[in-house]
Amino acid sequence: MTLIQLPEKLINDLISFGLTRNEAKVYLALLQLKKASARAAAKLSNVPRQEVYRVLPKLEKLGMIEVIIDKPNKFLAIDPGEVLSELVEHQQETLSRQLSKLREKKATIEDELKKVEGKSAGLTSPEPTRFALISGQRLINEKIQEMLQNAESEVLWMAPSVEVLRAVIYDRDRMLRKCAQRKVKVRTVTEIDKKNMKEIEKLSKFCEIRHSTGVTSLATIVDDKEIIIGSAVYPNRDLTRGELMHELWTNDSGQVDVMKDFFEKVWNISIPAKLEIDSLKSGALVETIAVVQGQENVRKKLFDVLAATRSKLFIVSDLDDASISLVMPQLEALQKRKVSIRWVSVVNEQNIGIAKMLNAKIRLRYVKERPLSFLLSDSECVFSSTPVLQIPHEVIWSINQNAVNVFWALAEEIWNVLSQDMAEYS
Q1: Which of 192, 205, 214, 360 is deepest in the core (most CB within 10 A)?
Q2: What is the pLDDT of residues 357-386, one digit of tens each?
Q3: Which CATH class is domain 289-424?
Q4: What's the predicted TM-score (pTM) here?
Q5: CATH topology match: 1-118 vs 131-271
Q6: 131-271 is classed in which CATH architecture?
Q7: How far apart are CA 242 and CA 354, in angstroms?
Q8: In which element (H, E) is residue 8 found?
Q9: 3 state DSSP class of 138
């Protein structure tokens, strides 16, 4: 006899009372059988017999089962009401012991903490908050270069169209490339036009760029620590001259936070640089959401999204040989670029072999029913009511960041709440 549908809710309920998953499954199997051998419990619970023999003494110790001496021994599940009472008592005793140990450690740890209180271990005190007005293009550029040299994790750059040209003239593109080589993430929002298109294509090789119309603010934010801001006022057409330009530098956290929040808002409503450049070249309007029809067009769109993925990819789609053959080369290429890949699928007897193979290569979890099929990258999503990797005749694609953010929230919900690890598949 094999258990076809394990009562998942009851398993999770018992786990919340302090049991492991296998302990909960074995007890539920014995409860259904009322009295059975270890072999029968193993068969019904789908827990390996060796693990059942390890679990049974624990269940007996917790007062959840009784052992009936026989050949072979039989095991009797105790009344659920008594079992739950015993588990509550056991949890109370465990917590009481833990609290007792913490109280014992408190005095010792308190003394140790007091010994290091006020000692910096050679570290310098926090840098005081400062403001500085910097005048003239040469001094402004030197300050920005200094900031970029000190960057450790992230650079956010907001610039009007002409400022991109000015930055390249002053060799700032080389500084940004060095940041990217040090694994510093660089994101840029600017207005892309035919005058700065070549410079944008050059910068896009090592930083992520988005297009937004009417950008008039100048801002460079480094590591949430410092910022230099100005306005796009150019006294003459010579980009190498800026004698009347002034910009404000500060390390004030409040100012940095306000400007970073503004940057993120603009970023979320902007579009990827490649799309705007393609639009400028072709003369076609950029769409932020579209219905893609025809299997060849759907296939091309999926490959375009995969190729443009920078740091993370989430897939919810059924598994079969055709789907794996379609995307495995792209997934392997993404892994080489250190892209985080997660996949959620329905797993059954027909595709369990494929699932195990894929699980050995990327992070895979399974669900009993697929809620919606989608492929989601850092900035794009493709979704459908049918499995997207089986190339349906129609999908919806979007680069609208608000839509992408909604799908990432859904992705995390599916991954953390609805799906299970392949190690738990039974």
Answers
A1: 192
A2: 888 888 999 888 877 899 999 889 999 988
A3: alpha beta
A4: 0.51
A5: no
A6: 2-Layer Sandwich (3.30)
A7: 62
A8: helix 8-16
A9: helix
